[in-house]
Amino acid sequence: MKVWLKFSPKMVNQAVITHLIKKFDVNFNILRADINSKGGKMLIEISGNDTKKGMEYIKKAGIEVNLVKRVLKKDDKLCIDCGACISLCPVKAIEIDKDWTVNVKDKECVGCNLCTFSCPTKAIKIVGY
User: Fold this and answer.
1) Are the beta carbons of 125 and 75 closer than 8 angstroms?
2) Average pLDDT for residues 10-14, to the nearest whole number?
3) What's the CATH fold of domain 72-126?
């Protein structure tokens, strides 16, 4: 599952993520992070037997947890299927179908935001950031 973690300034220097990995049977992958002394956000992909317990542990420690249903959103009304976003995607989460329409594979997206900057019509957005 993909989750946004929001850190307050108080939580930035705490080793909560380290404790999460040590205490619970979880696999943890950081997809995107923007954290400084004022706080920040991190997009993670987490899996394993104790994922739910691990998320509860993080919440109790003081980190805001928001389950991500979608990372990437394409507005079909705005998209002109130009393909400007495709070559910039480092994980190939955007492709062109046989009928020349841009297709978004949300489960592959890591939230890097490169596609949003390249889109001339602003049809692609990162959700939750």
Assistant:
1) yes
2) 86
3) Alpha-Beta Plaits (3.30.70)
